[in-house]
Design brief:
alpha+beta; six-stranded antiparallel β-sheet; 29% helix; globular
Length: 239
């Protein structure tokens, strides 16, 4: 949702808040050039996320405890370029390859695929200010790709965000992602791809789902946490 993202960016930069209070709905409509219903939907979503509190008759207020570290929150799905920019760096792609390969058994089973299922496998290295920051394996079942693909795998390489790839090229786009976070010992390949001399790297094992809760694809993400530092906002549940 573009309006929600624009409001979030304004909160992070401080450009649209006045002592923690957001502009009125009408002011946000003019500022974002969107309808009042769009603004209300964006504010409702932000309130559901715990990032703002809407006080009827008084306006909308930022929950600063919840928005601390907002730029690098791991619970918000973002493209890799956006993630690197949020960490204060300029993103680029250093290495990219796309090929059709058999699915690894463990991932095939996680996606409920039959034996012999094929995948489009993307291997991509993302740079931050020219330094290796993220390396990703994307395992995409060929069955979820729109008819006529993958006649040219190069179409994948021109889109940096897996969420945008799904919107453009999948039959059903990604609605949400579950990530298992762990660490992994650095081997020669990961040392080459991430330029890290550390013994371990942060690893995200992600399964991406459709709006119907169907598993679509898997990602294995390795992060140079000298450059990219994630944060999680933990909120106390209401009683």
């Amino acid at each position: 949702m573009k309006a929600k993202r624009a409001i979030l960016q304004g909160i992070v930069s401080g450009e649209i808040t006045n002592e923690g209070k957001l502009p009125s709905e009408g002011e946000l409509c003019n500022l974002l050039s969107v309808s009042r219903s769009t603004v209300r939907s964006a504010l409702r979503s932000l309130e559901d996320d715990g990032l703002i509190t809407v006080r009827h008759g008084r306006g909308s207020f930022v929950n600063y405890a919840a928005t601390a570290g907002l730029r690098m929150r791991i619970d918000i799905a973002k493209g890799y370029y956006e993630l690197i920019m949020d960490s204060g760096h300029t993103p680029s792609i250093g290495f990219s390859s796309v090929a059709e390969e058999p699915f690894p058994d463990e991932m095939r089973q996680n996606l409920l695929l039959p034996e012999g299922a094929d995948a489009v496998v993307m291997r991509r290295q993302f740079l931050a200010d020219g330094e290796p920051a993220i390396f990703i394996f994307e395992y995409i079942p060929t069955k979820i790709i729109k008819e006529g693909l993958p006649s040219s795998f190069s179409q994948f390489e021109s889109i940096e965000s897996i969420y945008e790839i799904s919107k453009s090229l999948f039959i059903d786009e990604i609605e949400y992602t579950n990530a298992e976070i762990s660490t992994e010992e650095v081997n020669d390949f990961l040392e080459d791809m991430l330029g890290s001399k550390k013994r371990t790297l942060l690893k995200l094992r992600e399964i991406h789902y459709s709006k119907d809760n169907e598993p679509l694809m898997c990602s294995i993400v390795y992060v140079n946490d000298d450059i990219i530092r994630f944060q999680v906002c933990r909120r106390k549940l209401g009683i």
